[in-house]
Structures are given as structure tokens and as C-alpha cells.
Amino acid sequence: MTLETFNFILIIVLAYLIGNISPSILISKAMGVDIHKEGSGNPGTTNMLRVMGKKAAAVTLSIDILKGVAAVILGRFTGGEGLAVLCGLAVFIGHIWPVFFRFKGGKGIATGFGMLVTLSPVMGLICLGIAALGFLISRRVSVGSIGAVLVLPFVAYHYFPTYIEIFIIMGAIVLWKHRSNIKRLLKGEEPKTNFKK
Predict the structure, then answer these.
(1) CB burial readout 85-116, b (16+ within 10 A) else e
(2) Are residues 95 and 105 in contact, defined by beta-carbon separation less than 8 angstroms?
(3) Cα–Cα distance between 104 and 28 in angstroms, integer?
(4) Are the C-beta atoms of residues 116 and 129 closer than 8 Å to each other?
(5) Model's pTM, two decimal places?
(6) Measured between alpha carbons, how far is 151 from 35 in angstroms, rounded to an integer?
């Protein structure tokens, strides 16, 4: 293995480890709560909002987005666009399947957005706009997230055609992680988001 290859792999591993940082798990544990056992059990922004309130949810959202931003910047400045995309995928996977938390992470939306908006602000904002529209219409975060993921391959094909397979894989993972939400939506049982806390 050459030094260049070793450094390439090391950067991707570092990006994965950045994804392992889980503000929802750390915040909830600090407050005596196991977020995996409360609400939906998902350690993400929406469940933090339902269980821990708006402040905890805002911190969770901000840090999860910044993870995606940091990983892409790390890849871009150490290896260019190709490594930036791979680091984005690595941080996304690290968020969803964190080795430090028994591979039980979030659904990847906030970290994925951080990745997208750093790779291409226009691409990220288009997906954010779709997500916001879906949420405003349905009052359900899951609807916005699923809508954005369904649009992602088409947007990515325009801005990053060389890496379209990576974005399709990310989209498929997000849909898989939302399978329980999709089932509840089809049954009319998916709860609306409440911002009262």
C-alpha cells in the first residue's frame, strides 16, 4: 500500500468517525434519558423535538448538519472533489451506523443535507426546498425527507453525474431507514410534528 493510498483511506475513516458523533445520544444521556427507548427510538432531530424539546432538537440538528459540512471540507482540501464525495458518503454512513453506539444511529437527513449543501449549495438548497414544501403541506418531517430523497438522484445527475451511483445509494438507504414511516403514512398513522415544547 502506498502512502497516498493509506492517506486516502485514513481521510475516509476520519469522515466516518465524524459521523459517529451523536448529539442526540450524548444530550439525552446527559439529561438521564435513553433516546433509543423514548418516542420513535430514533436518535435524530424529530425524536429529540418530541422527547427533549426545541433546544435539544436545535442543537442536534445543527451538529448533525455540521458533521456533513466538516467531512466534505476535509475531503475537498485533502484530495479534491472525488474524495469530498466519498467523505460525504462516509460521514453519512457513520451517522446512520455509528460503531461507537452499536451501529444504532439516525436516518441521515441532516448530515446528508450538510454534505449536499457543501458539495453544491444549489443542489442542497433544492433538496431543502422540496423537504420544506413536503413538511409545510403535510406537517410531517418524514414526508419532506422522503420527497427530497426521491428528487435527489435527478438533482445529483445534473450537478454530479460522475458520482450519481453514490447519491442513489444514499437515497436508497434513507428510504430504507424510513420504511416504518412509510408504512405509517400509508395507514394514515404517521404523527404530525409538534413545536409546542
Answers:
(1) bbbbbbbbbbbbbbeebeeebbbbbbbbbbbb
(2) yes
(3) 15
(4) no
(5) 0.92
(6) 30
Q: With 80 as the cut, is the pLDDT of residue 197 above it?
A: no
Q: What is the DSSP letter of 163?
A: G
- Round to whole Å and give the CA distance between 184 and 191: 9
DSSP assignment of 71-137 equals HHHHHHHHH-HHHHHHHHHHHHHHHHS-GGGTT----SHHHHHHHHHHH-HHHHHHHHHHHHHHHHH
Measuring CA to CA, how many Å separate 94 from each of 89, 130, 193?
A: 9, 25, 26
What does the pLDDT look like over 34-83, one tens digit per residue?
898 888 888 888 889 888 888 999 999 999 999 999 999 999 999 999 99
Distance between CA atoms of residues 91 and 87, nearest Å: 6
- The string of pLDDT tens digits covering residues 10-28 is 999 999 999 999 999 999 9
Q: What pLDDT was estimated at residue 64?
A: 97
Kindly state the cell numbers that stand for 3: 502512502
Question: Which pLDDT does position 193 carry in this prediction?
Answer: 76
Is the pLDDT at 183 greater than 60, yes or no?
Answer: yes
Return the closest-CA partner of residue 118 out of 79, 158, 66.
66
Contact, 125 vs 131, CB < 8 A?
no
The share of the chain scoring above pLDDT 70, in percent, equals 98
